TrEMBL record:
Protein name as catalogued: Endonuclease NucS
Keywords for the protein's UniProt record, in alphabetical order: Cytoplasm, DNA-binding, Endonuclease, Hydrolase, Nuclease
Family annotation (InterPro entries): Endonuclease_NucS, NucS_C, NucS_N, NucS_N_sf, tRNA_endonuc-like_dom_sf
Endonuclease NucS C-terminal domain segment(s): 132-236
Molecular function per GO: DNA binding; endonuclease activity; hydrolase activity
Organism: Candidatus Heimdallarchaeum endolithica
Gene3D superfamilies, per the entry: 2.70.180.20, 3.40.1350.10
Residue stretches making up the Endonuclease NucS N-terminal PH-like domain: 27-116
Length: 256
């Protein structure tokens, strides 16, 4: 068995309490059993007896989960206040008090099914990719996917009517405005492309090309594009995303 993982006897004793308190902030603590919870602060919450899992991470964040659902029943952000275990009336009690707000959380275990101390480590952050900005980035790095001899001028180009995904010159040095969509296009996407085209033709005082890139086009959208001298190109992002890698990691909080 890995030295990183230690299984403690689920017997309420002074030895167990001492070991748990010594492990706080050093290892991840995982306890399962039948417990209640009470939060006392600006609001109060009570959780009646039920079988749950308590997780205390190295950064002192606290999560208590029930037997179903994604969200924790009780939780506390990292390093909000000291955490301690004690024994009261044959119950194992976890207590924490937030320093700034004086709010307190009490979790009382009537019975314990198992206790695990885990000395795991993780120095990487969650990398998320696959949004439209990734698709634009990939197309800019591989412009021949759009068309041969395409010269990229800029991305996210600001205009009075919005930001153009890609501004480029075609092989005849004609200005090409490109809007990229990861999903199936809608009429509003086509209308926006028309606004871009009108804007640049007014500024440049000459005809410009405008192209909408997406995985698919409904007949209504395609017809509007054709009737307004706008171009369309189908590019399946699902064949591209597996090859994309962000240079900068994005945290899960940023994504949501």
């Amino acid at each position: 068995m890995s030295q990183k993982t230690e299984f403690l006897k689920p017997i309420l004793s002074s030895e167990l309490i001492t070991t748990l308190n010594a492990a706080i902030g050093e290892r991840m603590l995982i306890l399962a059993g039948s417990c209640t919870a009470f939060f006392d602060g600006r609001i109060k919450s009570t959780l009646e007896l039920g079988e749950r899992i308590l997780i205390i991470k190295k950064d002192l964040s606290i999560l208590m989960h029930g037997v179903s659902g994604v969200k924790p029943l009780n939780w506390q952000k990292p390093k909000q206040g000291p955490i301690s275990f004690l024994k009261e009336k044959n119950e194992l009690v976890m207590h924490t008090k937030r320093k700034k707000t004086e709010e307190e959380l009490w979790i009382r275990f009537r019975s314990i099914d198992f206790v695990i101390l885990w000395a795991g480590s993780d120095f990487s952050s969650l990398e998320i990719y696959g949004d439209e900005s990734d698709l634009v980035k990939y197309l800019v790095e591989h412009p021949s996917i759009i068309e041969k001899d395409l010269q990229i001028l800029s991305t996210e180009f600001p205009t009075d009517v919005g930001y153009v995904d890609i501004k480029a010159l075609d092989n005849k040095k004609k200005l090409l405005i490109i809007e990229v969509k990861k999903r199936k296009t809608t009429p509003s996407d086509a209308f926006q492309l028309k606004r871009y085209k009108d804007y640049f033709e007014k500024i440049e005082k000459k005809k410009v090309r405008a192209m909408l890139i997406a995985p698919s086009f409904p007949d209504k959208v395609r017809k509007y594009l054709e009737n307004n001298d706008l171009e369309s190109k189908e590019i399946d992002w699902k064949t591209i995303f597996p090859t994309i890698s962000r240079e900068k990691n994005v945290k899960i909080d940023d994504f949501f």
